[in-house]
Amino acid sequence: MKYIRYSRYTGEPADAVDLEELIKRLGDFFLQSGFESQYYGLSEFDPEKTMEALRQAILRALAEGDLLPDDLLEQLTKQGSAKSEQELRELLDRLIERMMEEGYINGPPPQVTPPPDKTQRGHVGGGRDAQNQARFEITDKTIDFLGFRTLKDLLGSLGKSSFGRHDTRELATGVESGGISRKYEFGDTLNLDISATLFNAVRREGAKVPIVLDYPDLMVYQCEYQSSCATVMMLDCSHSMILYGEDRFTPAKRVALALSHLIRVQYPGDSLHLVLFHDSAEEVPLGELARVQVGPYYTNTREGLRLAQRILSQQKKDMRQIVMITDGKPSALTLEDGRIYKNAFGLDPLVVNQTLEEVAKCRKSGIIINTFMLASDYSLVHFVQKVAEICRGKAYFTTPYTLGQYLLMDYMSKKTRHIH
After folding, report:
1. Is residue 294 over pLDDT 70?
2. What residue ranges define each of the domains in the chain, with the CATH number in brackets?
3. d(CA 225, CA 223)
4. C-alpha separations of 248 from 260, 323, 373, 375 in Å
5. 52, 294, 297, 299: which could form a disulfide with 132 (CB 3.0–4.6 Å)?
6. Cβ-contact 272, 233 below 8 angstroms
7. pLDDT digit string, tens, across residues 62-111
8. pTM
9. For residue 406, what are the contacts with CB-CB under 8 A and spacing of at least 6?
10. SS3 of residue 2 by DSSP
């Protein structure tokens, strides 16, 4: 007689990994800006994001701990064991499969091979290399998730903020009461002060039932006027953002994603546009930000300001501002004939003067420029302070590690004395 022995199903090791925590740890890999490739070449840190590069990134994330039992990971990574290498590869492939199933990445498209009679003969193998070179793409879900987690981490150090509003010193009718009530005027939000309305009707008609209300009896609560804001974030993507042994562009991309998530969730009336400036300037959809790499080389700040002004001129908002994140001096200028004048040595008077003239135009248009400087070069301090002085904005000298805290704190605590 045959006996069947049953045991409890313990599941695969990959199923026990917290996928959201893994995606968070892969954030730098997904958002990389070309910083690693200049030191490690294009193999392990492939900017085109091959499947093999993703496997290596997952392995590094697992090695950080807390995602798998330490003894299990040590056993799988033990050298000289073919079985362990096979199990480790199966683990990594299963995690990639889970990421695809959950919609965090898109795998390579299906391949269509030609008929056998048209296939070149004499070539055997190569399947493993083709599999390693297969590309993947992160999805909008991953971009949104990274923005949410970055925002959550940043707000954790800032404390809670008010939901969905920028407070000013003006009073208007609204949902939350913030002052004494007044007579209703056409166009006001009908947030009635019931007691004052009934009191007016009784005083006019006397104490009788039913109480007859008339238009002059209506009283509405006042609340703090909540303004809307149009923001253009200017990101410096010149080559200096990944030079000097520090990646400054990836943290800037993270902050842009977090700010976009903040606006969408808490300030739905606001708008955010993204401008990258380098040799020239261009507007980039926020959905494409995670895929942007650093380059070209120079810093054409004036062209970025010009493009930002054109975008803001189309926004009918109470407040309009430019948030500029940069780490270097302006070193390029677009001439009238379309040619680009470049000078990376020192503060070129022509470039600086033309840039400051553009800053003055922003002030005339009522646009505030808040500058976040990621460098500590003393020669740039005067220039940044001059920009803040001309446009009545603010200048922050920060680092890639504190950039997000400064920027979000500035955005959520609008200093209304600069606006009204």
Report:
1. yes
2. 13-107+134-138 (no CATH), 156-164+228-418 (3.40.50.410), 167-226 (no CATH)
3. 6
4. 19, 16, 11, 10
5. 52
6. yes
7. 888 778 776 677 777 665 567 777 888 888 888 999 899 888 888 765 55
8. 0.68
9. 372, 396, 398
10. coil
